[in-house]
Each structure stands twice: as C-alpha cells, then as structure tokens.
Design goal:
Helices cover 32% and strands 17% of the residues. The protein has 2 domains: 265 residues, Aldolase class I (TIM Barrel); 67 residues, Antifreeze-like/N-acetylneuraminic acid synthase C-terminal domain (Type Iii Antifreeze Protein Isoform Hplc 12, Alpha-Beta Complex). The chain contains 11 helices and 12 strands.
C-alpha cells in the first residue's frame, strides 16, 4: 500500500513527488480558468485540481468565513464561484489536451455524480469532509484513488476516515497532512513531523497540503517523506478571487517545483558511497604514508621514517603497522608517497 497508481503514474516511496496545483476557484471566467491550467502546466506540475460545489448543498446562508479567510458570507462566495457542468467540461477537456491530469474536490454526493460523468481518474476529499464518513464511503465505492486532507482533524478522526475508505474495498489511498489556516503565518503550527507519524501508522503514501507562503515547508515535507505536495495557485495575485493573497503565482509555483525536484535529487537512495565527483578529491585530500626523510635501498622501515599526511595516493594509514619492518626496494626521497612497490 506504499504506492498508489494515478493515471500512468505511481505515487509513493521511491517515486517522483506528485505536485498538484490547486486552482480551486481562483478565476472569474472560463478564459482565466484555461489560462490557469496553461500556466500551471508551464510550471511543471503533475496535476491541476478544481473545486466542485453548489452553495445550497455546501453551506447555510448564515455562516461566514473566519477573518483570516476574508470573513465574508460563505453562501455568497460559493454562489459567485460555483462552476456549471459545462464549465467543468471545458476546463477538464483543456487540461487533458495539455496532457496534464485534472481532478476536483467534490462537496456533496451530487458533485461526485457530476465528476463521474466527467470520468475523473481520482478524487480529492477536503479537510471539511474528514468526519463526513457517509460521504467518504460514497466516494470510496467508486473504486478510484482517493487523496484526503486532514486539516482540523485529530489522529482518531484521521484513522476513522482511513478505515471508512478501506472498509469500502478501496485501498488506493493517499493521506495529506494539512493545517487549515489560510495562510499559515506561524511556522510552529506546521509540525511537519506528523508526516513521519502518518507514514508509520498508516503505511500508505503521505503528502502535504501546503498553506504556507514560502517554499520552505514543502521542501521540508519532501525531505520528511511526503510523496504529494498540493499548493494553491493563481495566475495573478491581483485577481479578484478569494484565495489569491495566499496562493502561489506562476513564478512562485515554478520555484516550488524546481526546489522540490532539487531536494528529490539531493535525497538520493540512502546508500553511503563515494560519488564519482569525489574520486579525484579523495586522491588529493585523503592521507597516506609519506617518507619523513630520504630512505636508502635496503633500509628497514621504522615508524619514525614516515609520516601520515596528504595526498591519498600512497599506502593507507591503516596499514602503517605492515609498513614497519619492511625493507626499501628502491630509494624513497623525502616527502614522497610510499607505495607497496617501494617495499620488499
């Protein structure tokens, strides 16, 4: 279970990090949505994600967002930014034409049915539905890979969500560690070591839904074993869209992708070995046995006749005791490297 197939990609340990640009509803027109897909593709992400909802099946009319998220009325915001099925089709078709995986986060059973009509290849479950177990079961029964976020959750709630999905016969699961603040301003809230806990407890690929405003958290998450990184994305922070102020713009997303790819290379396979580029350095910077004075042919080597210093092209220091007592086969000038062919 430590790898999940998404489309033609394996996601999990030993695989490239799966990077998602969360476009959400960070656009006002279909044209801006298409441009968002194009710019995300240009940034090198592996997938783009939207949000599928209708205000009447998502929230009552009386609740507002927290102040950190704008403080506006939720129903009014969702009513403004909901996407029609036709808009979904246009955006999904464009993403597929660009050769990038596209999916969405549904918020109600009807949304899942819409996404099924669009033949999505996986589902993302938002943190707000972590405890909505009947909804998780409905999605899991579709048999497609599931990425579920864990913001605002306890370990018990995450385990219940995971078990609900598994009990439906669906083992294609990725769990995203998430802190539901928009944005995260205090790094102490991140507690990225939870990624290691999730990997140990659940034995499935673990990712990080990044609501910070720098690349550092995502890079650290990858170093801790995250196989998926999700980041909110907007083509222009000046757009009149709710998430623009904490979303990555194209230059920031490009930097994020580049830094993740760099840290992937840096992590390697965990086997300690001398790199190709270190071979010459080892000859010049390691130490070996060097003549302390001129040594004549036939002299018996004693410890005071040689010193251990650079370079590393002679007999290794660990063989110093074997050098003592040997006879010099030829003249060994002072301050030259002693090799085995110098000795009988």
């Amino acid at each position: 279970m430590n790898k999940v197939r998404i489309g033609n990609r394996l996601v999990g340990d030993g695989q490239p990090v799966f990077i998602i640009a969360e476009i959400g509803y960070n656009f006002n027109t279909v044209e801006e949505g298409i441009a968002s897909i194009d710019r995300a593709v240009d940034c090198g992400v592996d997938a783009v994600k939207f949000q599928t909802f209708k205000p009447e099946t998502l929230t009552t009319r009386s609740v507002n967002f927290p102040e950190e998220a704008g403080g506006v009325n939720q129903w009014e915001e969702f009513n403004r930014y909901q996407m029609s099925e036709e808009t979904h089709r246009v955006l999904f078709e464009h993403a597929r034409e660009r050769g990038i995986l596209v999916f969405s986060t549904p918020s109600h059973f009807d949304d899942v049915d819409l996404l099924e009509r669009l033949d999505v290849s996986l589902y993302k479950i938002g943190s707000d539905d972590l405890t909505n177990l009947p909804f998780l079961k409905y999605i899991a029964e579709k048999g497609k890979p599931i990425i579920f976020s864990t913001g605002m959750g306890t370990m018990v709630e995450v385990a219940e969500a995971f078990e609900t999905i598994l009990s439906s016969g669906n083992s294609h699961v990725i769990v995203l560690y998430c802190v539901s603040n928009y944005p995260i301003r205090d790094s102490a809230l991140l507690d990225l070591n939870v990624i290691k806990t999730f990997k140990k407890v659940f034995g499935i690929p673990v990712g990080f839904s990044d609501h910070s405003t720098t690349v550092g958290a995502a890079v650290a998450a990858v170093a801790l074993g995250a196989s998926v990184i999700e980041r909110h994305f907007v083509i222009d922070k000046g757009l009149d869209v709710p998430d623009a102020f904490f979303s990555a713009d194209p230059s920031e997303l490009r930097l994020l992708v580049d830094e993740i790819r760099n840290v992937e290379k840096a992590l390697g396979d965990g086997i300690k070995r001398r790199t190709v580029t270190e071979s010459q350095m080892a000859l010049e910077a390691r130490k070996s046995i060097i003549a302390r004075r001129d040594i004549a042919v036939g002299e018996t080597m004693t410890r005071d006749m040689f010193i251990i210093k650079r370079p590393g092209t002679g007999i290794l220091p660990k063989y110093a005791d074997l050098v003592s007592g040997r006879r010099a086969r030829k003249v060994i000038p002072r301050d030259t490297v002693i090799t085995w062919d110098c000795l009988d």
